[in-house]
Amino acid sequence: MLRRDFLRAGATAGVVAGAGCLGGDNGPAFREGFEDGLGDWEAGAAIGPEVDLAAFEWEVDTGSDEAVAGERSLRIWNEGDYDDGVTWVVHPVPATAGQAYTATVTAQIWSESESFNTLRDAVMRLGPEPPEVEADFPHPGVNTSALGQTPYGGLREPLWLADGWREYTFEWTTPELSSETLYLAVGTAVIWEGDATHYVDELTVTLEPR
Questions:
Q1: Cα dist. 91→29, 53, 128, 159, 210 in Å?
Q2: 195: nearest Cα among 28, 77, 48
Q3: CA angle 101, 106, 107 (to 5 degrees)
Q4: Cα–Cα distance between 200 and 76 in angstroms, integer?
Q5: Burial class of 130 by CB neighbour count within 10 A (0 to 12, 13 to 18, 19+)
Q6: Contact present, 42 and 12 (Cβ < 8 Å)
Q7: Rounded Cα distance, 76 and 109, in Å
Q8: How many CA atoms lie within 13 A of 43 on its CB side?
Q9: Taking the CB of residue 195, how many other CB atoms lie within 10 A of it?
């Protein structure tokens, strides 16, 4: 289990490795179902400057409480006392330097129930650097699918839109890449007071050269 001791660990993601990195021309560049635990995933968190980051409580782990496929998924919990804060995990994804892509990222994310109140937003990002602060994710309501070429891809969209699992996806029209590594991040952002748990499963990244 990872708590606030892992503050901003996402900024130091390690070497591209692990079962999630697939490669090949006919399948996704990356796929993760968390069947083997966190592996090379690293965690991070951020909160606004009016709150000391050490006071923001959050947890990231894997477990068998909920799953779309297989038996396990990623669990993200964070407190809502401050009506603020974001918690995420990040993993490297292999790419080809000098190549431009149309990237498609998809995740299944679980909410406890459908709610008229937006208690949490899902945040996702794919880019040449890992996120370090909340501002590194898109603004609320933004999905880069319709924006054309941007420095990074991602979304920030409401959770609690369905009882159980719901698919979240975005496209990113990349510039010509200057490195062989991209960084995939997924997490939850606090919107409303109250603690909340969400689960993430079946993450995929496809990279279509253009």
A1: 12, 22, 12, 22, 24
A2: 77
A3: 150
A4: 8
A5: buried
A6: yes
A7: 10
A8: 23
A9: 13
Q: What is the DSSP string of 159-207?
A: S-SSSEEEEEEEEEE----SSSEEEEEEEEEE-SSS-EEEEEEEEEEEE
Give residue-wise pLDDT tens across range 24-56: 456 899 999 999 999 999 999 999 999 999 999
Give the model confidence (pLDDT) of 135-194 as tens digits.
999 999 999 999 999 999 999 999 999 999 999 999 999 999 999 999 999 999 999 989
Radius of gyration, alpha carbons of the chain: 16
pLDDT at 116: 87
Q: Residue 189 corresponds to which tokens in the numbers above?
A: 């952002």
Q: Are strands 120-127 and 153-158 parallel, antiparallel or unpaired?
A: antiparallel
Question: What's the gap between Cα 123 and its chain centre?
Answer: 6
Do residues 122 and 88 make contact, with C-beta atoms less than 8 angstroms apart? no
Amino acid making up residue 136: D
* Contact in structure between 191 and 65 (CB atoms under 8 Å): no
